[in-house]
Design a protein that fits this description.
By secondary structure, this protein is mainly β. It has no helices and eleven strands. The N and C termini lie far apart (40 Å).
């Protein structure tokens, strides 16, 4: 089965930087989009950044100019987070829209999440 595994979370001081990585594995024919979402305690999960197969990127207004999503290789995307703020504290989830098999159509997958904590 397809798996998305996040890494790179941790504790960082406000103003600092952190780099998250999402690695996809399993039977994957093609990846249409890969994205990062986050969910803070008591809040809904929200999209942070999305990158398409063509390289187009979209960012949430709250992180624009501070975060950068990039494709490391065909199966991996990173999220470079700079100028971190306490309000960035959340569990960050990797998400992908992909085709897991030939003629399988498009499906969505989620990673387990990685905790990012930004201290004041």
């Amino acid at each position: 089965q397809v798996q998305l595994v996040e890494s790179g979370g941790g504790l960082v001081q406000a103003g600092g930087s952190l780099r998250l990585s999402c690695a996809a594995s399993g039977s994957i024919v093609s990846i249409i989009t890969m994205a990062w979402y986050r969910q803070a305690p008591g809040k809904q999960r929200e999209p942070v950044a999305v990158i398409s197969s063509g390289g187009t990127t979209v960012y949430a207004a709250s992180v624009k100019g501070r975060f950068t999503i990039s494709r490391v290789d065909a199966m991996t995307v990173d999220l470079q987070m700079n100028s971190l703020k306490p309000e960035d504290t959340a569990v960050y989830f990797c998400h992908s829209r992909l085709s897991p098999a030939y003629n399988a159509g498009w499906e969505e997958y989620w990673g387990q999440g990685t905790q990012v904590t930004v201290s004041s």
